[in-house]
Amino acid sequence: MKDSRRLVLDKLKEHGIAGDTSYPAYSHPHTGITDPREFFRSVVESVGGECRFVADLEAARKCVAGSEVFLAAKEVCSYVKEVAEGNFEAEAKADAHQCAEVDLTIIRGELGVAENAAVWINADPLRHRALLFISGNLVLVLDGRDIVPDMESAYARIDFSRLRSGYFISGPSKTADIEQCLVIGAHGAKSLLVLVVG
Amino acid sequence: MKSHARLAAAFLKQEERAHWHDQALWYVREKRDRMAASVPDWEALRETAQAIKRHALANLPRYLEEFEQNAAARGAIVHYALDDAEHNRIVLEILKGRNARLVAKSKSMLSEECGLNEFLERNGVEVVETDLAERIIQLAGERPSHIVLPSIHIRKEEVGEIFHKHLGTQRGESDPTRLTRAARSHLRERFLAAEAGISGVNFAVAETGAVVICTNEGNADLGNSLPDLYIAVMGVEKVIPKSRDLSVFLRLLSRSATGQPISAYTSHLLGPRPGQEMHIVIVDNGRSEILRRERFHKAAFCIRCGACLNTCPVYRRSGGHSYNYIIPGPIGTILAMHRDLKKYKDMPYASTLCGSCTAVCPVKIDIHRQIVLWRNEVVEAGYLGRAKSAALKTTTLGMKSTRLFRIGGWAVRKLLRILPPFVFNNRLTIWGRSRNLPKMPARSFRAEFRAYSRSKTDLSESRMNREARS
Amino acid sequence: MSLGRVGLFIPCYIDQVYPRVGMATVRLLKKLGVSFEFPEDQTCCGQPQFNSGCFKDAAKLAGKMFRIFKDFDWVVCPSGSCTGMVREYYELLLERDKDRYEFKHLVSHTFELCEFLVDVLKVETIDGSFPHKVGLHQSCHGLRGLGLGVPSEQVLPGRTGKVRRLLESLRGIEIVTTDRSDECCGFGGTFSVFEGAVSSFIGRDRIKDYERAGAEVIVSYDVSCLMHLDGLICRDKRLLKVMHIAEILDGAVA
To answer: In this complex, which chains have at least 3 CB pairs below 8 Å with chain B?
Structure first.
């Protein structure tokens, strides 16, 4: 095995890349975004999600409590107790497979990106990161101050030094693999609600 | 092996289907155009992406080692494979070591390139493709016809048939939502039973050791989080220097690929989850050779977005299966040629050289230029074919001498004017099969121009004479 | 403004098959007051050979072209494709000459007719009329290779482009909007023969697009694309006409 490593690295030492090979200095802010919150909301909707602005966590609670997804959910797993109590404790389960029937997961996002509706989720506090993908539906709770305009500003804010896993999630899971017809809810969440608080 | 021209002609026999295929992909290109136009700095982003690739690939050993050290520090086990065979062997050994017999696999062009599935199946490991399109392909026993939309050539009624046979859905079901739901529950059960997950990698970040994987369905994400064993396979060219560079590539990738602002899920994995074993297999399999060839090295910059396929007028109207290499279309052509010049000699000719591939490429690979350069390699290797070579040689001879050119041109025009049109506008000539030849003029331009100049000179001379007289 | 020596580069197929396009170019240039020469020794730029991969053969013809045109101040050609051949690819073929001053001059001073009008003669409008519905076919080599317009897949300013601007200035003209603004017609040089089925299929799609948009005439700066399209139009007995832009401009100007 060691031999192949050496061989591969040696083979790559020689290359035919001509011209300037220095690392480029760059900055490409998305200058077209004047109102990041509104932009974020419209993109969330364009990617098949739902976005609500709420004044505080109490308003968020009401919003969730009244939602169809919540009312229909049998197993609700909540990491934001102010928004919903939940009746399923993923942290108490030894194995992620036990989370397979969870209908709704409510969790905090750290960052929202206006240009593409991606919400950054640090999955390290979770015992089972699979919950993010196995759960039938997702509610992401985001602080209104944490919406940035573009990916460049997003990566400037993410600290990778101790991170083990982080995810950008933009809208619910989807596929267009059958005749380019968009179907929401492939393997992951069938719906996604982003609650922007404050 | 049939040539692209023959396979494409067969594809086009089903005219309605060919139009549907073309339109479905054109629709994706239009979405891509709208998305590209929505980013103020789009063209500059492409420049930057190429500059980062140029830098990263010129310094690959350094970045690979940095990536490897960081990934290992986070607990991932890193392997290197020289070629496809070694890649397959490593993956099999890892699976056997953990006694894994069922693998939930996510789409990976690298594994297609290496023939991983067939290899594992031969060795008693069941591989379930979990991307919906890949699963359709797998159940149908076909190969992908597109690198991002593998089942773009299959119609919903046919998916219904395949699912009826393999998943027990109702006969005649062709509703995409219901078919997708059926696949979801079928694959959910496989996910829960799988002992290992395998996925490709979109980007590997040297400074953190992160592997980054983009999907819309969430399948790679289930596959890398649920089982206790996860294997990420990647080509050496996937390494980028910094996390910040992801902002450049992620902004380009999905917009170029499907016209989305970003894919639904972008996983950043830095080592295994607690209780999991994570392996990263880094594969060369000819990439170092691509990088060594100055004229062709940019082919290794490819981030597999598939935009060049969607925009290619030939790909859209000939289907992915008309190209004999596993990666079809413009990018497939310039990758295939490195593999086997003789075997894929017809691929560079499956292009009008319109250049749209180069113009959409998010990392600005000079695709159409490389295609024409590959034609030259085919010719130099003597693979063009006798008839075509002879025809071109004769033309060159005729063009080299102005005299021959004039005489030859006159003779051909004369002949075509004398012969009744059915002689050349018929099914036996390649041009005439579906097109008429233009009506041949009696005189060439040069003859007309000479006459014109003479009359002009006569005119101006007579004018001058008149003026002189008065 | 004195331009110095202007050489007229007439592609081989225009010389032999479409003399009327060459003559329209001649008359148009005269009307615009350009004096030029037509070097009779010229034959072909080598594009058919080059595009087929026969670089050695193409180099022989490129060398001939270079010898014929190297002493001209400007070279004008009524074809985007052949101009592109000189500008983009001659350096690949004439390795030995590529650093010579005359070579660099030839490459940078060979112009397609429309861009010669716009960029060199600084023509902004054409005083004439063409009261017809026109489908503009922006041939790929001119569009992407020479930048005669901005291709629909690129995000760049100046979308109108040089050719369109010239046409738009004609009185009574209507340039129709097609579903696909600049898709390839499928000609592709020897591609049209090597891959006849795909080539014709693409061409028919293009023609239908122009028909849907209500065009009476397809106009292009490349008569090679038009030869392919016209071949299909005649075979299918459609009513569309094809015209080279030189014919339209020449006919429109008094």
So the answer is: A, C
